[in-house]
Amino acid sequence: MIIGYARVSTQEQDLARQIDALQNYGVEELYTEKMSGTNADRIELTKVKKRVQTGDSIVVESLSRLGRSTKDLLTLIDRWERDGVQLVSLKENIDTSTPTGKLLLTILTAICQFERDITAQRTKEGLKSAQARGRKGGRPRADTSTLEQAVKMYRSQTYSMPEICDITKISKATVYRALRNKEQNKKTKRK
Asked: How far apart are CA 174 and CA 121, in angstroms?
């Protein structure tokens, strides 16, 4: 089965160019959606993932249609390769059923790994530099009085969690952590 997948990022964009290219290639089933590639819950792509079987081919107009993150794209392609599913990208002229297509994917994977390694190296260097200047990493700690205020607001049941976070500028996780700590302290004092 030759399955086509086309995507544009917004409702205002047109899928016609991609659909034409995929139909000219000879796709037998076509899935289309208008949704950002950064959205992890792409309904039609999920359908494609569930639909494909060993021996099928997935055809896209461009690799960018599968997602914006190189890492996510390569993870998806690797999964399909393990499942015996071929990928064809018309724009990049990649076909994973050919030795050249496999070579191009290997190069893409190496570039992706290089990119991750460079980012990690820069992050470590930046942290080391900041520490040398006396700065500590991480988020600034919430001020105790503001945290107490957030806990009181929560317990009053007058404010929603988004309102509390907006007013106090404290994250939801920090408020919940403070609430848990207070409960644990109460239990410890009772014993």
From this structure: 29
Q: Map out the domains of the chain as residue ranges.
A: 2-109, 144-190
CA 63/CA 71 separation, integer angstroms: 12
pLDDT in tens, 77-114: 888 989 999 999 998 888 988 998 888 877 877 786 78
Q: What is the CATH number of domain 2-109?
A: 3.40.50.1390
Q: Examine the residue annotation and report whether 9 is marked as an active-site residue of this protein.
A: yes
- The active-site residue, picked from 9, 62, 64, 69, is 9
